[in-house]
Amino acid sequence: MKAIIFNLSAWVMLPIMDGFAKYLSATLPVLQITWSRYFFTVVFVLPIMFFFFKERLTWTEKPKLQLIRGLLLFCANILFFYSISIISLAKALTLAFVAPLIVTALSPFLLGEKVGLRRWSAVLTGFIGSLIVIRPGFVDINLASIAALGTGIMYAFYLIVTRKLHKFDNPLLTLLLTGTVGTIIGSLIMPFVWVQPSIVEWYMMLAIGFFASIGHLFLILSLLYADASKLAPFGYFEIVPNIIIGYFFFDHFPSLWHFVGLVIIISSGVYIFRRELHNNPI
Length: 282
Description:
The protein has helices spanning 2-24, 30-52, 63-84, 89-96, 99-110, 117-134, 143-165, 171-193, 199-225, 228-231, 239-250, 256-277.
């Protein structure tokens, strides 16, 4: 029960971060918002790690994989923050939900895992769900929708690298290194895109880092009490606070077609998770 509570709490915290990011995108560059997400995450997480988990912080056994993981998540965040600056939170997140389906499609080639006909069918069904959300030919496909799908692709590679790292490094160390990679890269870019924030915007940038930190710490705590495969389907709960924030703060509510595509994508993802839970490649 603790695992579920921590996991669901994480999926409440992270949409709040996205809400702040969407609001700030009206006045600040997406790259600056992304930088704040990493910079303030490190500001919050580093003291917590040092004072409470110092004995568990040893140097990584796979520095190249940690660097790649950090780069993938940094790019995924840029794409997602750009997409929500133009389209609704719910639509962007729904399209990003293709990540587990892409992981399944790539796992035979990158992880050496077997994927049977039923799982391939689930991947294809999930892809159809994403097409229903975008509806090519019926509505204009904009760059933001493509960026949201790109978020799912980047996040899929990020999940694959995370699976590889799970055998070697402590998840707390991985969280800190991922934040550090994003902070360093973002800081190198900032002189070229920086826009001076107001006091209120500084607080919002800080809030992005705060909710990102709390969300990921809750995820780590949930994994202390249950396996990732058992908790994975709860990740789709993120769409609920996402829709609520989009409706009350940005006057966005998903269309019927959006809900149809969402149900198809989630159903495909849950089916795949259930097969993984029973170690069945079919």
